[in-house]
Design goal:
The complex is a heterodimer of chains A (591) and B (253).
Chain A: H1 8-18, H2 34-62, E1 65-67, E2 70-72, H3 77-86, H4 105-118, H5 120-139, H6 142-153, E3 157-162, E4 178-181, E5 187-197, E6 206-214, E7 225-231, E8 233-235, E9 241-244, E10 247-252, E11 263-276, H7 282-287, H8 290-318, H9 342-375, H10 378-409, H11 412-415, H12 421-429, H13 438-449, H14 452-470, H15 479-503, H16 507-512, H17 514-542, H18 548-565, H19 568-576, H20 581-584
Parallel strand pairs in A: 3-6
Antiparallel strand pairs in A: 1-2, 4-5, 5-11, 6-7, 7-11, 8-9, 10-11
Helix pairs in contact in A: 1-2, 1-9, 2-3, 2-4, 4-5, 4-8, 4-9, 5-6, 8-9, 8-10, 8-12, 9-10, 9-17, 9-18, 10-12, 10-13, 10-14, 10-17, 13-17, 14-15, 15-17, 15-18, 15-19, 17-18, 17-19
Chain B: E1 2-6, E2 9-11, E3 33-35, H1 37-51, E4 57-64, H2 68-78, E5 82-87, H3 98-112, E6 116-120, H4 131-139, E7 142-153, E8 156-163, E9 166-173, E10 176-180, H5 192-198, E11 203-206, H6 239-248
The complex binds flavin-adenine dinucleotide (FAD) (2 copies).
C-alpha cells in the first residue's frame, strides 16, 4: 500500500528562503517564523500520514453508497473527519470572528497540499465547505454569516457548490433551475443539479448547498443567474436544526476516481432557499471565489503527483531489474535497482522537477491572493487572475501525466490495483475536468485574461520575467536558468504578439493555439520559479545556511527542468504560429 | 501537584540511520529530528493526569542543543504548560550522558519540586535506559520503571510494569520517578489552536552552570558500526529436515 510523508523541508525552503514570508509585509505573515510553520506542517504531516493516507485505498475500494436516500462515506471517514475537526484544521485560514484561526491563505494552501496528497477524495468534503464558507463570508448578510459561518468553520456543517445541470456544464447560460420569490423573502428552488461533490454524506449534521438558479426578471443567459443558500435541514432562529428541506439525492455517480467523495445528483423540489448576495448577480458572486477555487484544483494536480512520486521513488530504489549499462552497481544481487537506469532517472526527474516547480508556483499564487485580499493590492490581484488558468490547466494536465509516469515506474504492478498507483492516476484525472475543463481554462486565458485591462497584467508579467532574467547577470552559476528563461519568455511574447495580430481578423487562430499557449505559459511560470529557487539555494549555500545536500539537489533539479522541459516552449510556439488552418481544415462532417 | 517531564530531541524513528564514515557515531547533520517517542508517551500521560485533575501543572525540560526548543514547543502544543531548555551542547552530535542529564534534572527537581517525574524508559538513539533510575538514586526517591499503567491516589502511585514474562503491579510513595513504556497510552496529535498557543507559552533557557553540573563526557565511544547484514537462509525440503536442523544444527529443540 502506498505511503506518504509530508515534504516539510521543501515547504520550509519555499516559505523562508524563496518567499521570505516574515519579511513580506503582508498582514499575518510576520508571525510565520520558521519554528511555527515547521510545527504546523509537521503536525499536519503526522495527521496526513497517520490518519488520512491509510484511508485513501479504503475510500477507493469501498466508495460511497446511497441507500433509502442516505449517503454513506467509506469506513473510517467519519472518525477521520472528526479528528480533522477536533484538530482545528478545518478552521485554519478562516475568520477568527467565526471561530477560525485566521492564518494566511498561504498556510492553508501548504497544509491543504499535505491533506490532498494523503487523501484527495476525503479532503474534498472540507475543501467544498471552505468554498461555500468563502462565498457566504464575502456576500452574506450579517444574519447569514452569524447563522452559517461558525458551524461551517468547524465543519459541523459542510457545504457544496451547485452549478452543473445535465444540459449545462461549461455554458451556464443554459441553466434551468428556477427560483421563485416567496412572500417571506425566501425563494422556492426547483430543478436538478448533477455532479455535486460532497452533495450529501454522513460526516456532518447539516449540508449547506449554494445553488445557482434563475429568478424572474433577470434576462437571458448568465445575466439572470442568482446564488442561493439552500440548507439540507432548515435552521431555526436559535441555530437549532428544523425541518428537512425539499432537497434530495437522486443518485450517486459511479466514476473513474475519487471514489471516496460522493458525487451526487441533487433534486430541488420547491426547496426553500435564501438569496446570497445581489439578485441576478450570482455569476459575479461565484467569480470572486474563482481564484481560490481554481488554485485549489491546480494544487490537487501536483499534490496527487507528489504522493505518486514518493512511492515511485521508493519502488525504483527497491525493485531489482536489469543491470546498469555502465556495469553492475549491486554486484551481490542478481540485478540492480531500477533507479540505476537512465530512462527511470528521466522519468523520476520529470516528476520531481514538476512537483517542486508546481509547489513553488502554487505557494507564490497563494501569496499573491493574500497580498490582494489582505493588502488590497490590485497589481497582485491582476497578476494572479492572469495566472489562475495556467495554474489550474497546466498543473492538472501535468499532474495527471506525472501520476501516470509514476505508475509506469511500477511496470505491470502499476496497472493492477494492489499497489495503489492506479488510484493516483484515476484520482488525478478529474482535476483536468471540474472547476472549468482545461480547454475552457485555455479559452479564459487567451480569450479574456490576456486582453484584460488593456493587456496590463500580461505586460506586467513580461516585465517581471525580464527583471528576473536581468537580476542574475553577474552570477555565472545562474546562467543556465536566466538564459533558458529568457528564451522561453521571448517565445511566450511572440505567441502573444501572434494572437494580437491575428485575434481581430481571425479569432479561430487565437483559440486554436490557446491550449498550447496555456502550456507555453505554464513552462515559463515554472522556469521563473526554478530561477527563483536556484537563486535562493545559491544564496543559502553562500551564506552557509541550511542543508547543503538539499540545496545542491534543488539546483540540479532546476537545471534539469530548464534544460529538458523548457524546450517544449519552442514546440508550442511553432504550433501556435500555424494558426487555425491545420486545426480547422476539416469540415465537421468530414470527420 | 506538579509533573516534570524530561523530553529528548532524537533522530526521527522513520529516518534510516547512517553511521559516520569514521565510525565516531551516527550522522545527525540535517537529519530529521523529533521528540523521543517514549517521551511523547510521558508527555501524553502527564497531560492526562492534568485533565483528570491529578496534576496542576505540566513542566517539560530538555537538555541538549538550542534546537531542542522545537521539541519543547511540540510538548507545549500537546498541552504542557511551561518549558525549560538547558542548553548543554552546541554541536548536534554531542550527546549528554545519562549521569549528567540525571544531575541536571535533579537540579531542576530541587527548583520545581514536582510530585512525579515522568520520563521515557529510554531514548531511541542510545537506548541507555539509565536516566530515570539514576535520577531516582540521586534524589533518593522511589522509582517505577517500564510503566504500562499509572494511577495516582493521594501520596501513592500504583504502577503496572512491563517485565519479562508478564506484568508486575507495584505501589510507590510519592514523590517518585516513573519511566514509561510503549503501551501506556497513544499520544495525541497536537491541535492547530494548541500549536498556535504554544508559541506564547513560557520557555526558560538555562545552562548546566546554572545547576553547577559538569556535563563533560565520562564515557568514550570506541566504535560505531552498522548491524551486520542478515546471512542468507536455507530452504528446507521437508518438515522432517526442518526438525532435524533445529535439533542438530541450531540446538534449540
Ligand atoms: C467528479 C465530478 C465532480 C464535480 N463536482 C462538481 C460540483 O461540486 N459542483 C458543480 O457544479 N459541478 C461539478 N462537476 C461538474 C464539472 O464542473 C463539469 O463537468 C465541468 O464544468 C464540465 O461541464 P460538462 O461536463 O457539462 O462538459 P461540457 O461543458 O459539455 O464540455 C465538454 C468538453 O467541451 C469543452 N468545451 C465546452 N465549451 C467549450 C468552449 N466554448 N470552447 C472550447 N471548449 C469547450 C470542454 O473543455 C470539455 O472538454 C463535477 C464533475 C465531476 C465529474
Ligand atoms: C494486465 C496485464 C497483463 C499481462 N499479461 C501478460 C501475459 O499474458 N504474459 C506475460 O508473460 N506477462 C504479462 N504481463 C506482464 C507484463 O508484460 C510485465 O508487467 C511487463 O513486462 C513489465 O514487467 P514488470 O511489471 O516486472 O516491470 P519491471 O520489469 O519491474 O519494470 C518496471 C519499470 O522499469 C523499467 N525498466 C526495467 N528495466 C529497465 C532497463 N533495463 N532500463 C530502463 N528501464 C527499465 C520499465 O520500463 C518499467 O517502467 C501482463 C501484465 C499486466 C499488468
Amino acid at each position: 500500500m502506498p505511503s506518504y510523508t509530508a515534504p516539510v523541508k521543501d515547504m520550509q525552503f519555499l516559505l523562508h528562503d524563496v518567499l521570505k514570508v516574515t519579511e513580506a509585509g503582508i498582514e499575518g505573515y510576520a508571525d510565520l517564523d520558521e519554528g511555527f510553520t515547521s510545527a504546523v506542517l509537521e503536525e499536519a504531516g503526522k495527521v496526513a500520514s497517520g490518519v488520512l493516507a491509510p484511508l485513501n485505498a479504503v475510500g477507493d475500494r469501498e466508495g460511497c453508497t446511497l441507500e433509502n436516500g442516505v449517503v454513506r462515506t467509506p469506513k473510517g471517514f467519519k472518525e477521520a473527519f472528526e479528528a480533522m475537526k477536533q484538530g482545528g484544521w478545518t478552521a485554519l485560514d478562516c475568520d477568527p470572528a467565526y471561530g477560525g484561526q485566521g492564518l494566511p491563505y498561504l498556510m492553508g494552501t501548504a497544509v491543504g497540499e499535505i491533506f490532498v496528497s494523503a487523501n484527495m477524495a476525503f479532503n474534498m468534503y472540507q475543501g467544498l465547505t471552505h468554498g461555500a464558507y468563502s462565498a457566504i463570508h464575502t456576500h452574506g448578510t450579517p444574519e447569514q454569516k452569524a447563522m452559517y459561518l461558525p458551524k461551517m468553520v468547524s465543519c459541523d456543517w459542510t457545504g457544496t457548490m451547485n452549478l452543473t445541470e445535465p444540459h449545462c456544464g461549461t455554458d451556464l447560460g443554459l441553466m434551468r433551475t428556477k427560483a421563485e420569490p416567496q412572500a417571506d423573502g425566501s425563494y422556492r428552488i426547483t430543478g436538478q443539479k448533477i455532479f455535486i461533490s460532497a452533495g450529501d454524506h454522513d460526516l456532518s449534521e447539516n449540508v449547506i448547498h449554494l445553488v445557482l438558479a434563475k429568478a424572474p426578471g433577470g434576462g437571458e443567459g448568465t445575466k439572470g443567474i442568482s446564488l442561493f443558500i439552500v440548507p439540507k435541514f432548515l435552521v431555526n432562529d436559535d441555530g437549532s436544526l428544523g425541518a428537512r428541506n425539499a432537497v434530495s439525492v437522486g443518485k450517486i455517480e459511479e466514476k473513474m476516481g475519487i471514489h471516496g467523495n460522493a458525487t451526487c445528483v441533487m433534486n430541488y423540489d420547491g426547496a426553500t432557499g435564501w438569496l446570497l448576495g445581489d439578485l441576478h448577480k450570482g455569476m459575479r458572486a461565484m467569480f470572486t471565489m474563482m481564484n481560490e477555487a481554481r488554485l485549489g484544483v491546480g494544487l490537487q494536480g501536483y499534490a496527487v503527483a507528489e504522493a505518486a512520486y514518493q512511492n515511485a521513488l521508493n519502488y525504483a530504489k527497491d525493485r531489482l531489474q536489469g543491470r546498469a549499462v555502465t556495469g553492475a552497481e549491486n554486484p551481490d544481487a542478481p540485478a540492480d535497482p531500477l533507479i540505476v537506469h537512465p530512462d527511470i532517472r528521466r522519468n523520476l526527474m520529470e516528476q520531481k522537477s514538476f512537483v517542486e516547480g508546481a509547489r513553488a508556483l502554487t505557494f507564490w499564487g497563494a501569496h499573491l491572493i493574500d497580498r490582494s485580499v489582505r493588502q488590497d493590492d490590485e497589481a497582485a490581484e491582476g497578476l494572479i487572475s492572469l495566472m489562475i488558468p495556467v495554474i489550474k490547466g497546466f498543473q492538472t494536465d501535468k499532474g495527471f501525466e506525472m501520476a501516470v509516469q509514476a505508475q509506469q515506474v511500477y511496470g505491470g504492478h502499476g496497472y493492477i490495483e494492489e499497489w495503489g498507483m492506479s488510484q493516483f492516476a484515476r484520482d488525478a484525472r478529474i482535476a483536468m475536468i471540474y472547476e472549468g475543463a482545461n480547454g475552457v481554462q485555455a479559452l479564459d486565458l487567451v480569450g479574456r485574461k490576456l486582453a484584460q485591462d488593456g493587456g496590463k497584467h500580461v505586460m506586467a508579467f513580461f516585465e517581471m520575467v525580464k527583471a528576473e532574467v536581468k537580476a542574475h547577470d553577474d552570477d555565472a552559476r545562474m546562467a543556465p536558468f536566466a538564459e533558458a528563461l529568457k528564451t522561453a519568455s521571448k517565445q511566450l511574447q511572440q505567441a502573444a504578439m501572434f494572437f494580437m495580430a491575428q485575434g481581430m481578423k481571425n479569432p479561430n487562430a487565437a483559440l486554436a493555439g490557446s491550449y498550447d499557449f496555456m502550456h507555453l505559459m505554464g513552462h515559463v511560470c515554472m522556469g521563473l520559479m526554478w530561477t527563483r529557487m536556484a537563486r535562493a539555494a545559491f544564496t543559502a549555500l553562500d551564506e552557509g545556511r541550511g542543508d547543503a545536500d538539499f540545496l545542491n539537489t534543488k539546483i540540479a533539479t532546476g537545471r534539469f527542468y530548464m534544460a529538458r522541459q523548457l524546450p517544449a516552449c519552442a514546440m508550442h510556439l511553432a504550433r501556435i504560429e500555424t494558426g487555425a488552418d491545420p486545426v480547422m481544415a476539416l469540415a465537421a462532417e468530414a470527420f | 501537584m506538579k509533573v516534570l517531564v524530561p523530553v529528548k530531541r532524537v533522530i526521527d524513528y522513520n529516518v534510516k540511520v547512517r553511521v559516520k564514515a569514521d565510525g565516531s557515531g551516527v550522522d545527525l547533520a540535517n537529519v530529521k529530528m523529533s521528540m523521543n517517542p517514549f517521551d511523547e508517551i510521558a508527555v501524553e500521560e502527564a497531560i492526562r493526569l492534568k485533565e483528570k485533575g491529578v496534576a496542576t501543572e505540566v513542566v517539560v525540560v530538555s537538555i541538549g542543543v538550542k534546537q531542542s526548543q522545537e521539541t519543547l514547543r511540540t510538548a507545549l502544543a500537546m498541552g504542557a504548560d511551561r518549558a525549560i531548555l538547558i542548553e548543554a551542547a552546541a554541536d548536534v552530535h554531542t550527546d549528554i550522558e545519562p549521569l549528567a542529564v540525571a544531575k541536571l534534572l535533579a537540579g531542576v527537581v530541587k527548583e520545581e519540586a514536582p510530585g512525579i517525574v515522568l520520563a521515557g524508559k529510554q531514548a531511541i538513539d542510545n537506548d541507555m535506559n539509565a536516566t530515570g533510575q539514576m535520577l531516582a538514586a540521586l534524589l533518593g526517591w522511589s522509582q517505577a520503571t517500564f510503566a504500562s499503567e499509572l494511577a495516582v491516589e493521594g501520596d501513592k502511585a500504583t504502577v503496572t510494569r512491563e517485565v519479562d514474562g508478564g506484568l508486575q503491579t507495584i505501589s510507590v510513595a510519592l514523590p517518585a520517578v516513573v519511566t514509561v513504556d510503549l503501551r501506556l497510552n497513544e499520544p495525541r496529535y497536537a491541535s492547530l489552536p494548541n500549536i498556535m498557543k504554544a508559541k506564547s507559552k513560557p520557555l526558560a533557557t538555562k545552562t548546566p552552570a546554572d545547576y553547577g553540573v559538569d556535563v563533560s563526557p565520562r564515557l568514550t565511544v570506541v566504535k560505531t558500526t552498522e548491524p551486520a547484514g542478515r546471512k542468507a537462509g536455507v530452504k528446507v525440503g521437508s518438515v522432517d529436515e526442518l526438525i532435524a536442523k533445529l535439533k542438530d544444527e541450531a540446538g534449540v529443540i
